Each structure stands twice: as structure tokens, then as C-alpha cells.
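Researcher: Next sequence.
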Amino acid sequence: MVKGVIFDVDGVLLNSMPVWENLGELYLQKFGIQAEKDLSEILYEMSLKEAAEYLISHYGLKQTVEEVTKGIVKEVEQFYVEKVPLKEGVREYLKELKERKILMVIATSGDRKNAEAALKRLKVFSYFEGIFTASEIGSGKNQPDLYFAAALQLDTDPGQTWVFEDAWHAIRTAKSAGFKTVAVYDKANDKNLGQIWNHADIYLPDLLNFNEFWSRASEM
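Model: Next structure:
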């Protein structure tokens, strides 16, 4: 049964993972610098400050750590405000859920301002009852607090609330907390695809067939 739905943003609603994977390269392009082939892998586990320090030392940038950090943040903000697209099928999913009077909220590890800017530009923000962010709740998706806060907004029990996520750690957390989980494929999570496939209640290679989700979810 489906009483409420909690959506992740990056990798589920928005096709935004490419900007995160290529952020260092995009920043260096502004200075006419060609990035090394595996830069995204090098920066992947670094904090923003650490990434800025690496770019400065490795590429001989004259900017300070603060300037590089601000520049990277600006690149991200511009991408959300101007460019990031919806993933295929998202608009139809939201319309179908609304027609069935299923309330929806957002739970994201990302920045509220970026998410709102993109969703408003793409004209889907009005579908949601609210946005909950990890920074505002005070814990990330390795803890269930974010999902519990979102479910409180929906006024639904976890067992009747479906969480749409693309990342393995988020799916694991939501399911362990008693939520029903839908894993949505995103290339950024290929390395954990086996775990995602085996752990989620429903695995979807894309969001192009709403009835596939609805028929299966309605039986659980």
C-alpha cells in the first residue's frame, strides 16, 4: 500500500550527478586548464576544502582556498539554476501520484536553495509538501532522522511510506528504519548495483513506467 512518498533529489528527480562527478574539471576549464583523466576519482572522497587545496597545489592555481571553494560552489549553483534537467519520466510519476492523492515530500543531502531553484525552474516544485535537508535536520542519510522528519510531514507510517533513492547507503538506512524502498538506477552508483538490487523492495532501471511501480507497491 502507498500512503506517502519521499523523494531524493540528485540521481532520482534530477539528472544532476554528472556535475558532481566533473566539478573539478568544470572549474579548471574556466582557467583554460586541462584536468587529468582521473580527477573526479581523486576528488570523490574529499571535502570541498580538501578538493580546493588539491586543485591549488596540483594545478598551480593562484587563488586562495576560500576563493576556489566559492568558485566551485558558484559553478554548482549556476548548474542548478540554469541547466540541470529532470530525469526521464519524473514529471509523469509526479502527476500520477498527485492524481491518486498521494502526498510527496523531498529528503535530500544537498542544498535546499539549489534543489528549490531547479525544481521551480522545471515547474515541479508545487507537487511537494516540503523539503527536508540533511544539514537542517543535523544528520545525513546514514541515519534515519531525515526520513522520519519527512514522514512526520506526510503523517504516514514508515511501512506505508515509499522512499525513492539511488544510493546504496540511503536505501539501506531507509529500509532498516521500516520504510518501503524504491531503488532508481543512476550510473553514479554502478559500483554498488548488486547491493542496491538485492536490498531494495523495488528496483527500477528508470522512471518511464509508472504502472510497474504502482502495481507492485500496491500489493505490498
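Model: The chain has a mean pLDDT of 92. The radius of gyration is 18 Å.
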